[in-house]
Specification:
elongated; two-stranded antiparallel sheet; 307 residues
Length: 307
């Protein structure tokens, strides 16, 4: 493996970095470390390795940035669909932007699977291309340069690890592959259990309307974005606007007793599922999701409140 990487170093580096940043679940960090070690023994140029990795990183990020700019939040659903935890994917990225703002573009490089979502959100939110490029270059330089430099400094230790992996040969690769597949299956199984539970925690528009009319103790949270709310100009009666992106900052305002009903405007109530999971982690119980979301409510001709 070492000889192959030494002979095809720059191409391997480009492929690994581009693949991870475009959303393929393949960590590039071990490759960066090994390339740094090869540079330390004179088999690669550290300067050109850094430049190559930065270009690959920025190129992949730019794909999602411009797709977000042109196609809007639909791109985010497309990215998260391939995540092992798609219900948390978008909420996690939105939470980062809520906490640290535009700096998420920089920090996302160090969080697995967050970078493509952060790039797409930057595009959908209308971040200026010049500012995005500057932040992305900063993050790409810190990430690639940092791990290449670490491999350069710790090249002796990195080489020993690679030698041990090579000694394991095919059996080592087989064991690693089995562990990776087992992890993916475990995450998939957990996700299916959560989805089954959430399927049972749905309330029909008719039942919710009856409870609202009866003055029941129910809190209705409208998870749509401010743009979606403004475009529609209406909401379900008694609903409180609670954007999904603000769940971490506003979870303390959600009552811990009584019924909580969530609704969104996304397919299969994906945003409602993500917010329900986030609220449950903060101790909020009694959560139900409105079957069909806001569209299902309107299709049944039930009353809405004009903004």
């Amino acid at each position: 493996m070492g000889e192959y990487l030494a002979a095809n170093g720059y191409w391997v580096l480009v492929a690994a970095v581009f693949a991870e940043q475009v959303g393929v679940p393949m960590p590039a960090t071990p490759i960066l470390l090994w390339m740094g070690a090869l540079a330390a023994v004179g088999k690669l140029s550290l300067f050109w390795a850094v430049v190559t990795a930065i270009l690959a990183c920025v190129s992949a990020d730019s794909v999602w940035f411009w797709m977000g700019r042109r196609k809007g939040r639909a791109v985010l659903r497309q990215i998260c669909r391939y995540s092992l935890e798609p219900e948390r994917c978008m909420t996690s990225a939105n939470t980062w932007f809520l906490r640290v703002g535009d700096q998420t573009v920089v920090l996302a490089k160090f969080v697995p699977a967050l970078s493509p979502v952060a790039a797409a959100i930057a595009g959908t939110e209308g971040m200026r291309a010049r500012r995005y490029l500057w932040l992305d270059l900063l993050g790409a330089t810190a990430w690639t340069g940092g791990f290449l430099g670490l491999g350069y400094v710790l090249h002796d230790q990195v080489e020993r690890v690679v030698e041990r992996v090579e000694r394991l040969g095919k059996w080592g690769l087989l064991v690693g592959g089995v562990l990776l597949v087992g992890f993916a299956v475990m995450k998939w199984g957990k996700r299916q259990r959560v989805l089954r539970r959430m399927q049972e925690a749905r309330i029909s528009p008719e039942v919710l309307w009856q409870r609202l009319e009866a003055g029941g103790r129910v809190t209705v949270l409208d998870l749509r974005s401010a743009e979606e709310l403004a475009a529609e100009g209406a909401k379900i009666p008694r609903a409180v606007h609670f954007p999904a992106a603000e769940v971490e900052g506003r979870q303390h305002t959600v009552p811990r007793d009584g019924e909580i009903v969530l609704y969104c405007s996304c397919p299969e109530e994906r945003t409602s599922v993500a917010v329900a999971l986030a609220l449950e982690r903060h101790g909020v119980g009694g959560i139900q999701m409105l079957a069909g979301g806001y569209a299902g409510w309107r299709e049944r001709g039930l009353r809405v409140e004009e903004l």
